[in-house]
Automatic annotation (TrEMBL):
Belongs to the YkuD family. Gene3D superfamilies: L,D-transpeptidase catalytic domain-like. The keyword Transferase applies. This is Murein L,D-transpeptidase YcbB/YkuD. CDD domains: YkuD_like. Residues 205-363 form the L,D-TPase catalytic domain. Residues 1-28 form the signal peptide. GO terms for biological process: cell wall organization; peptidoglycan biosynthetic process; regulation of cell shape. SUPFAM superfamilies: L,D-transpeptidase catalytic domain-like. Keywords: Cell shape, Cell wall biogenesis/degradation, Peptidoglycan synthesis, Signal, Transferase. It comes from Sphingopyxis italica. The keyword Signal applies.
């Protein structure tokens, strides 16, 4: 399979595990209440690039400025809006004959457009529950790009190079040209935006869960090697978007219950029927508000046989579940925010063998022991918990998914408003005149001799 294959592609490889591990035990179909998501407030402040206001203003030739204007006029192909970059003002500056005015007009527009291409146009306030960290600002500094583009005369090519590299973005971009209605075009723009909110390249190996698609994929060497059904957060406990680093896989995990779930019922069971709580694998210390509860590994454990170790402030992770029936539903939004993973033995075995360097036999022994075992990854890798509502349809086009949490509408609404800002570049001010300091008169006495 081609590197960076589309997420619609079928797995190119499968982990060969001992046959005894491929048949998961028929766990009881119980109500599962795994760790609840810790809802964080949305980011409101726009972290626009910080650009020094007193720099040597880049000098724009007429050719470079005209190339920028041509790119702006066609920027609708990128899912952006030419009006944001005031093409008429740039055209007037090109014809005006004032070099300083042209330098400022072209530089401001380049930096704003490059900001939107690299980081997305959408203000943070419209990016609901979006907490992914995008490091493109470190690898693609805008002023360096601008300087190089002007020197080489490659302004359009430099701007185009900021597109995300994943083929799914290219497919969305191509599909925008054939969108039949404004609503369809906006749906595509929304998802092109979401790709820009992420790192330009996702990396060579990663796990990605697309919440509206109810699927988790494992990518290794740029190729999808496994696809698993997923159960995601219900509308009252939605799964946020984030990209923590995965550091290991834990098999036969303990489950430390959050306070919200203790209060929902197990606290009362411990108080009124402790024997029943023990049969379900619960142990505890304290009482009342100080009650701390842990569920031991076993068939009834809410985390099942595995948990992906991915530390984050939202308490989100991938894990197994004893409620296998949920994977049979078409719409699988049942969890408290975490992502339940189908075929968890295969998933965790893949993690242990491909990413932790263990043999299938070592993994099988750990599972069979019933004891909590951690397999640390040789190199941590990102887990992308994404939210794409337009995805490849497998026939060269795209298809629309249900907007599970209603997160498309705020992005569409933002299209009618100004986008994220970039810092304004102004020409450097001349240094202040150094004042003359009065001093005592200096008198030179003529020498009385020609010899010193």
């Amino acid at each position: 399979m081609a590197k960076n294959a589309s997420f619609s592609a079928r797995p190119a490889a499968a982990l060969l595990l001992p046959l005894t591990l491929l048949a998961a035990p028929a766990f009881a179909q119980t109500e599962v209440k795994e760790d609840s998501v810790i809802l964080q407030p949305d980011k409101i402040r726009d972290d626009a690039p910080v650009v020094a206001v007193r720099i040597e203003m880049p000098s724009w030739s007429e050719d470079n400025a005209t190339a920028l204007l041509s790119f702006i006029e066609k920027v609708g192909d990128e899912g952006l809006f030419a009006r944001d970059y005031y093409p008429d003002g740039l055209a007037a500056a090109i014809l005006g004959g004032d070099q300083a005015a042209l330098d400022k007009a072209a530089t401001d527009r380049f930096l704003l457009l490059a900001t939107h291409l690299r980081d997305g146009r959408t203000p943070n306030a419209a990016r609901k529950q979006w907490f992914m960290v995008d490091s493109d600002g470190d690898s693609e500094p805008l002023l360096s790009l601008l300087t190089a583009a002007l020197g080489a005369g490659t302004v359009p090519e430099t701007l185009a190079s900021l597109d995300p590299v994943h083929p799914d973005f290219a497919l969305l971009k191509a599909s925008l040209q054939t969108a039949k209605t404004p609503a369809a075009a906006n749906a595509i723009r929304v998802n092109m935006e979401r790709w820009r909110w992420m790192p330009r390249s996702l990396g060579e190996r990663y796990v990605v869960s697309n919440v509206p698609e109810y699927l988790t994929r494992v990518v290794h060497g740029g190729t999808i090697i496994a696809t698993h059904k997923a159960v995601v957060g219900k509308s009252s406990t939605p799964t946020p978007q984030l990209n923590p680093m995965a550091t290991g896989i834990i098999v036969n995990p303990n489950w430390t219950l959050p306070r919200s779930i203790i209060n929902e019922g197990i606290g009362a069971t411990i108080a009124n029927n402790p024997a029943s709580a023990r049969r379900q694998g619960y142990t505890w210390t304290g009482s009342g508000k100080n009650l701390s509860v842990v569920q031991l590994p076993g068939a009834n454990n809410a985390l099942g046989v595995m948990k992906m170790e991915m530390l984050n402030e939202h308490a989100i992770y991938l894990h197994d579940t004893p409620s296998k029936g949920a994977f049979n539903a078409a719409a699988r939004a049942f969890s408290h925010g975490c992502i339940r993973t189908e075929r968890a033995l295969h998933f965790s075995g893949l993690m242990a063998v491909m990413f932790a360097g263990k043999s299938p036999e070592e993994f099988g022994e750990a599972i069979a022991s019933g004891k909590t075992t951690r397999f640390g990854f040789d190199e941590p890798f990102p887990v992308y918990v994404a939210y794409w509502t337009m995805v490849p349809d497998g026939r060269g086009g795209v298809k629309k998914l249900a907007d599970l949490y209603g997160r498309d509408a705020p992005v569409v609404a933002s299209f009618a408003k100004p986008g994220r800002p970039t810092a304004t570049i102004i020409a450097p001010e001349p240094p202040p005149v150094v004042p003359t300091i009065p001093t005592a008169a200096r008198v030179t006495t003529p020498a009385t001799s020609g010899i010193y």
